[in-house]
Amino acid sequence: MDAPLTSAEIDRQLSTLLPQLEEEYREFHAHPELSMQEEWTAARIEEHLRALDLTPQRFGGTGVVAVIDNGTGPVVAYRADTDGLPIAEDTGLDYASTARGTLPDGTESPVMHGCGHDTHITVALGIARLLTANRGAWSGTVVMIFQPGEETAQGALAMLNDGLWDQVPKPQAVYGQHVWPGRAGHVSLSVGTAMAMSDCLRVTVRGKQAHGSQPEAAIDPIVLAAFMITRLQTVVSREISAREAVVVTIATVKGGLKENIIPDSAEFTMNIRTFSEEIREEVLAAIERIIKAEAQASGAPEPSIEEMYRFPRCYNSPSHAEELLEVFAETIGEEKVEQTEPATGSEDVGLFGDTIDVPYVYWFFGAFSEEKMATEGGPAGNHSPFFAPDEVGTTLGTGVRTGIVAILHELRR
Question: CATH assignment of 7-190+343-411, given 3.40.50.620, 3.40.50.300, 3.40.630.30, 3.40.630.10?
């Protein structure tokens, strides 16, 4: 086997590779697709992988996997997500998305890579290129996973249910990373719990329809929903200890037919973030109790509470995460690596490790210049119509560096 890939050699090869990666990033950014609809994206990823003499496989519909088999040694998996969001892009970039897609309810929506999955795809392709170009410097197997449907918690489960770990080598560890509104070239990593669990609920409030001039003949579901929404704000402020991190967000409210009609139903959706199963169950029980009690107080039919999707907790293996903190510090500089508290965002990446009981680590890398970080309010965050790295080369380079050194470190374990 050749000498191991050094940080200096990775940097040298990246300097040649980055112009190609930046071009690919712009292409992916301009062509986002909604969750579980990533047909163009999957096909384009497959083209790039075949150009590396790899044989991509489909799992879960639009999920793509490529196995880089390089002789005897450990098996490591690396995961990148691929879906966009129903957001109208407002970045002003000359490669901004004008794509549109159809939501599950049949409505048409603009689509944007507002969470940075275009960056994740491009970084993963860069890692695959360096691994295949330097086969003499490592031994083992790397499973590259391009996962659809992360935003709706469908993709990882779909790939696993489609027999992923029955048809490709099972890894001894899983790695992944996420771009975020931090300084370009910097990395943040949590030891232990990294991201929250998430529950998304749809609540249908039922009432009794009547003319707007005769409220006494109605049970107004809009007023009732308003009472529910107001009372639900007390779950965090009055029922959960201040020592616990919990978020309860009412995300959408729909109801009404016409200004002079009291409708027979209204609907709202909500998102809950928690960090432990005990608190999760306590919060969900409180939400159900409040919603049903408010309906009863109004003499309304019982409302329905539907689970739309849920994310598991993302838990970084402490020993692996602590090792990576040192590896990253050696690779990009100690001053650019930070150990952080868990994020309240959620991820389904952990399912790839949890289902086969292997450790995983998930970290964040920054995307913005010092000038942008210094602006009032800082850079736009993920899921914003304004989110897009302003230091594309540095951002992609950091993602490729940290991704490949994490993989190589595991292969040498």
Answer: 3.40.630.10
